[in-house]
């Protein structure tokens, strides 16, 4: 039934908690839980379908609040076994929601501005959330190797998660990646393989490997485990609402790479409404891109339903996907909720990184510069209402993209004397 | 009465919660709370004295457990006002206590091995804990500039904390620091001043500035605010015990730079015993140094009570204090508790960083390599009992000391074909 065979488990023995099946987002066709990602009927993307029918709202809320300070407090809403918190994993999540009053003052936001700072995750990006789901799926399907194609954050997240779980990891990257990024991924001791070719070549090779006997027992977190993996982004929505006191924000600004995160944040918010954990009221979702890779923003502004691929050229490497798989879904969500998709230049990204750092002490990756920069632009052009409660996502860590702010430096150089100090005008 | 005058507050109006006075560690002389650090009677170090007499154990435990997921759950035990969590600060702490079963297996630990991973703090080192205390003291004393001398982690922690609080920051560093470290500190937008000279020159200059009118209104976190600052390290002890289910560990391995952290971890454990929050039972504290800067380890092994200064030469820069102020206290604690002080070579530090990364997915700073490496050595030489519950501190993040593992790299480079993959022996 499934496109690929399941290594050592069938749906009847797979325990992924409330996950009941995989369901096609396009045609609704359902298949048993397994390491598959495309609908056999229409080739649409598969996503996890749940059975939440047994949950009572108050009991669920109390269970979550009594849970661990990690994404596993939401285990009843994720495709993971009930005892997931007891298994060796990185326990990501429950990152700080920073009330950003000084940033709000600079941007003119009066309705409450928050930064969800995912740099506090174990490998310092939101990728730990999604990889943690893929890891549980890999265990459930009997996979022994965790794998992915990556150009950065994901390589480290997969290497670290596999190390902690005692699984082999084998991560594929373009062979000419910067040395710093190679070190961050290689330190976890898994196999790190450089592919002679572009990132597209790396992806193509991974797809080939999945269909080959050589790839048997391999879970590619963002390919054959993608339906599970993607669910991890729902936890951003859960945490934001719980940290706001079980309230929906009015507006939320999410970065767009493949677009998956934005669609799952929306899914998470809708689930909380359906489960009665938050009040049912409108919210707006805004997408943020870099101008140098803005296929979704371009389509949004042109009123298109489809996304025309672009060749990325931006410092926001973690968002540089020129042909985003979930682009059409993002357009739909932005329009349905009354949001928008906007983009900012590399210069605006750098300015926004510095603005966030100097107002709130949060040093964001370039992707965080994109969301903060887009928030500013959306306020200026009147699309984002500054009188409403607004949450901006920072999905990564500035330490990983130091080059973006390499121009930052010393205010002054002085001799170690008070006279020299006074001459420099620092007193 | 105080050595320096208090900017805009006197002890009677200073609200630092349960902090009652400053008390000399040598002679016990007490002075009112203020920005002073040395005893006017004997020049011994001042530390915070508390009034915990009003606390009932059960009420206190419940209050802590109901508190925020940060160090502020322990506000009743820290020199901070009761409403500290509502003030703009980085809310550090409540970092992961990783049950390190795979590392335990490699080291032969059977009694339970845990890594307290402080890389999850906002600026990714334990310095956020101590700076957060200094920030509250600075606010209480009416200081408007937060300052420090630093060669790394502290500069970023101070810059970020001041930015978030809306205070000016002015951080002094040697002018020839590596560009990466300069960027990490400069990004928060405060003044970052390069001093033409060594780190010793920087420190000497800071002491001069404190005594000069030009330094009026300036809080140097690790000089005139040091008594408050140092208390932040107690929270490591509190968190470890609470995360173990309000149990004391049997053994704990702490890195030594100035030695302050180790003495405050001991103070925190003793407070928990005195408050009845944990059972009164013996525990052993072990100190960890790099061989290239091992004044305390050398003194311990020689049976000395005093510490002879060394000129540091090690990759563990964050521990490279050749003349550690709290060295004698560390020796006393290690001996009193039945612990030890040990050191490891740079090669052993690198091996330990890789060991921790490949077994637990935790990428530690060189200081974490020191504690893990020393733990291994202490087990090998029989000083640490592998059948007892042991906690190892990782106080910083590997992303900040990438050079230490720069040799780590690709397992293989292949063409994007299955044949090339098979030839490389990766299947």
Task: Explain what you see.
Two copies of one chain form a homodimer. With 427 residues, chain A is α/β, with parallel strands linked by helices. Chain A has two domains: 19-54 and 127-229, Rossmann fold (3-Layer(aba) Sandwich); 97-124 and 233-405, 3-Layer(aba) Sandwich (Rossmann fold). In chain A, 35% of the residues lie in helices and 15% in strands. Chain A contains 14 helices and 14 strands. In chain A, the strands form three sheets. Chain A has a six-stranded mixed beta sheet, with helices on both faces. Chain A has a four-stranded parallel beta sheet with strand order 8-7-6-9, sandwiched between helices. In chain A, strands 2-1-3 form a three-stranded antiparallel beta sheet. In chain A, helix 4 (153-165) links the parallel strand 6 and strand 7 (168-174). Residues 1-10 of chain A have low confidence and may be disordered. At the A-B interface, helix 4, helix 5, strand 8, helix 6 and helix 12 of A face helix 4, helix 5, strand 8, helix 6 and helix 12 of B. Strand 8 (191-195) of chain A pairs parallel with strand 14 (412-414) of chain B, so a sheet runs across the interface.
